[in-house]
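FORM 7B: Structural annotation worksheet

SECTION A. Query
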Amino acid sequence: MSAQLLTYIFIGLSFALYIGIAIWSRSGTTNEFYVAGGHVHPLANGAATAADWMSAASFLSMAGIIAFEGADGARYLMGWTGGYVLLALLLAPYLRKFAKYTVPDFVGDRYYSQAARLVAVVCVIFISFTYVAGQMRGVGIVFSRFLEVDINLGVVIGMAIVFFYAVLGGMKGITYTQVAQYCVLIFAYLVPAIFISLMLTGNPLPMLGFGSEMVGESGTYLLDKLDGLTAELGMTAFTEGNKSTVDMFFITAALMAGTAGLPHVIVRFFTVPKVRDARISAGYALVFIALLYTTAPAVAAFARINIINNVDGMQYSVAPEWFTKWEDSGLIAWIDKNADGKVQYRGGNALNPVKPAFEDGREASGQRSLSNAPSDSENELYIDRDIIVLAHPEIAGLPNWVIALVAAGGLAAALSTAAGLLLVMSTSISHDLMKKCLMPNISERQELLFARVAAALAVSIAGLLGIYPPGFVAQVVAFAFGLAAASFFPVILLGIFVKRMNREAAIAGMVTGLTFTFSYIVYFKFISPETNNATHWLFGISPEGIGTLGMLINFAVSLFVMRITPPPPQHVQDLVERIRVPR
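SECTION B. Predicted structure
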């Protein structure tokens, strides 16, 4: 059976499963729509949290960026995993004990201020829309290649699927759909990794094969082999990095603190019955997440070796089907600089970033694209880093059913996180904005209607951001984490552990941190992209890492304002004491 037919079958069955679960678990009350009634089992919540957490960035883009950047790509691995541990141990149990639906709900009540609640709603919208852009981009990539449709049409199809089960089922439907999506995505990630690990090293565990000897090359370890191959082709060794230590630190810290401030992950801990269950589900989620995150560096190394061995020197006239199909999607590009008819994969850019079109006029979807005036580099090949996980099974020659499985897994990863983000946005608008601020007398039925309408609007805007993304998937997601670190992390941390923290300090800190970080990102990504390099960055910090500086500014402003303004009411200080008590 062809890979195309199998892909249709696998994706069709997975979509039918998700829609069936949404219909079975549809929400009838706001409590079910917002937090699944608060009675999700810790094991199920752990799997749902893992699916919510492991987005298209984790599934599609993380291994890709490690494959291309080597040691520099470890910032995503360290930042995201370390951040989840920070969230699970430091914040989640206390937020669950506070027993609110959303992060703006926590901010509004903890800081006894509707203004603080509104600022938090704005922060949620900024963060969630930035994050969801990466997810919809991932959906479009999968559809464009495996279902052979335009990327933009793929985004629209993904929007329709998410709209159905997010709007109908709310958190209850999303939770159980995400359990199924976790099973699909982790199986789809591990199966090809195990296949390729066996082929290259003879070890069935990719995370161990990563450090094993190559098959047929006694005494030659995989990473040594990879470093040698990349050096021969004029590339930076896989185990070395080019980023400055300062920028690596700031990006990693932004990812960690941003994780602990992500509203769509935090809300998952409100869905379990008890505080103890929040801790247990966090432990389950950490195990589930570790299965993918410990495998990702191995997948990256395996992919880099297979690309070098199977693509460099390939005669273009007899290029395999997978190469031409990815080329048709605009995610692989080649130009024959020396007119020898062979693909030459070397260090340096094959493409000129000035003219974003192929020679025949087609628009390229990658960060750089072919130009009529090639760069001076000897490299002739452009590969979009977001396709590495999807294309690798084809590059390695794995069976068609594995290729189809990976496509279904990529969609599961993107859709699971997109649904969680859309629900958080709709909840913030219907509950925190409409119910708590603008229309406090609306009925539960009206509030539920507002939530569904808000979800529909959020899906539409998310689709536009997926069609016009501000970067590749992992980069877009990194911006969202920076915004979360600069806005929510300080106000949540100080709100739990500092009784003296008041509303004036919380509002000033959130506004300052979010404004600074958002302005920095917009300036270098949209206003002046030609200056987006280390020479012009503030203290050498890239837009990906500026969230850490925004977070430090937030802390400084909050603590200063707290000292010069009145303390919070006594009942608020007593509340802070209660949520810190274990029982």
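SECTION C. Observations
Residues 304-395 form one domain. The two ends are 58 Å apart (CA to CA).

SECTION D. Sign-off
Analyst initials: ____
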